[in-house]
Amino acid sequence: MDNIVTTLDQLQTLKPRFISVTCSNNKNDIEETTLKLAGYINNTLNIPAIAHLPAAYLSAEQVKRILTELNALNIQQVLALRGDIIPTVPCKKDFRYASDLIKFVHIQEPTFKISGACYPEIHPESPDLVSDIHYLKQKVDAGCTQLITQLFFDNDKFFGFKENCALAGINVPIIAGIMPITNRKQALRLIKTTSAHLPKKFLAIFDKYEHDPESLRTAGLAYAVDQIVDLITRGAEGIHLYTMNHAETAINIQKTIGSLFNTNEQPSK
């Protein structure tokens, strides 16, 4: 907790539009940790906080209690997710999909700003693109006012996804999720587990600097910077950095291209 607070204090200097606070699939983690950190961000650092809520692991009564606590903290933003399905962790029965939770929150607290997750390269469990966009439209129709993408490394995939959303009548802001790759372990994990397309340029960086940690970090940050510059230039509505609790990553990016963000387009964390 001390390390996270130190990271948050450093991120405050960047004046982000918001900082999101994730959680594990555990109600105690949400109520005892997520809300505590969100309150610190919102009320001590004076930065808008977004609390993650995993639909599959919360009951309706728990969500009501969490919304009451968020109101008490003067927080009115949530990111409603289904949550990763883990065989060893029992799911609750009230919310099967993220859209169910979004609809419930929207009815309970109509003034809340509800963010939803989206996958520029299709959710791993979706049978096809049409189905994926259909379910995403259900989230928006249920009350989602903003979408934040899963990480991606090919900007053309993102802009193709945006076009498909527009054709489907999805007209809420879509924030581009970027994860700078700064170490070998992180890169290996992504290569093995991510469904995101890994361009030749990305793989070449990993191959060339596989045994040179400092150069891999520098090249990984440079790749993320190139992505962000291209996204902003081509009209992306916002950038969400997956900082993984490492403030220096966001600070370095801000130093390099911070002038590209005006007061209404600050990068989120």
TrEMBL record:
Q: What is its EC number?
A: 1.5.1.54
Q: Which organism is it from?
A: Liquorilactobacillus uvarum DSM 19971
| Cofactor(s) listed | FAD
* Entry-linked InterPro entries: FAD-linked_oxidoreductase-like, Mehydrof_redctse-like, MTHF_reductase_bac
Q: Which reaction does it catalyse?
A: (6S)-5-methyl-5,6,7,8-tetrahydrofolate + NAD(+) = (6R)-5,10-methylene-5,6,7,8-tetrahydrofolate + NADH + H(+)
Where does this protein act, in terms of pathway? One-carbon metabolism; tetrahydrofolate interconversion; Amino-acid biosynthesis; L-methionine biosynthesis via de novo pathway
One of its GO biological process terms is:
tetrahydrofolate interconversion
MF annotations from Gene Ontology: FAD binding; methylenetetrahydrofolate reductase (NADH) activity
Enzyme class, first EC level, given as a word: oxidoreductase
Keywords tagged on the record: Amino-acid biosynthesis, FAD, Flavoprotein, Methionine biosynthesis, NAD, Oxidoreductase
- What is the name listed in the Swiss-Prot or TrEMBL entry for this protein? Methylenetetrahydrofolate reductase
What's this protein's family per the entry?
Belongs to the methylenetetrahydrofolate reductase family.
In this record, what's one Pfam family? MTHFR
State the GO CC annotations.
cytosol
